[in-house]
Specification:
The chain is of the alpha+beta class. Helix content is about 35%, strand content about 20%. It is built from three helices and five strands, in the order ββαααβββ. Strands 2-1-3 form a three-stranded antiparallel sheet. A two-stranded antiparallel sheet has the order 4-5. The chain is globular and about 45 Å long.
């Protein structure tokens, strides 16, 4: 994840961040939420990981308790496997290739 809402060192400031989740719910639909800050999106993603069963994983519980939300989401991906997505990224207008402002 990037510093100061500047994804991948582009120098462009993202105004919104997305949290995407593809898991068990909704016949494998992709759910996407929009957040004002990267920190809010990461916290929500870590919370969702815990609600999706990672609260049974001792290492993930420790990571969550320490506030290491990036590591919680990474652990979710590692444990759940390639058929699951839990990702935070900047919101981009695909029609113009620009960050949403």
């Amino acid at each position: 994840m990037s510093d100061q809402n500047r994804p991948a060192g582009t120098g462009i400031t993202a105004q919104f961040w997305t949290l995407a989740h593809l898991g068990y719910s909704g016949n494998r639909r992709l759910d996407v939420w929009l957040y004002r800050t990267e920190a809010e999106a990461l916290a929500a993603g870590a919370r969702l990981a815990m609600e999706c069963g990672m609260d049974d994983d001792r290492r993930t519980v420790q990571l969550y308790a320490s506030g290491n939300f990036v590591a919680v989401m990474s652990r979710y991906q590692q444990v759940m496997g390639p058929g699951f997505i839990l990702r935070v990224q900047p919101a981009i207008d695909a029609t113009r290739g620009q960050f949403i402002a």
